[in-house]
Design brief:
This is Phospholipase_D-nuclease N-terminal. Keywords: Membrane, Transmembrane, Transmembrane helix. 58% of the residues lie in helices and 0% in strands. The longest helix is centred in the N-terminal third of the chain and has 23 residues, at 2-24. It is mostly helical and 74 residues long. The chain is elongated, with a radius of gyration of 20 Å. The protein has a domain at 1-27.
Amino acid sequence: MDNYVTQSTFWFTLAVINAGLAEQKNRSRWVWFLVSILLGPVATLLIVIWRAPEPAPPSMTYRGGWQEPAPEPR
């Protein structure tokens, strides 16, 4: 029984660490947490060797939305 608890604790801890690594590489924390629960050390290897995706340009609708520019004074 002790061995089962130790292995599950290791697997969960590894999944939490992988979630942090994934976030640093601009990837989804929750997706990689779940992938890590299933794949364990293989997911760690994938996170480390895959190149981080390019960051997306900021959206104009995020935080306040698009606002028309003020008319120029004449």
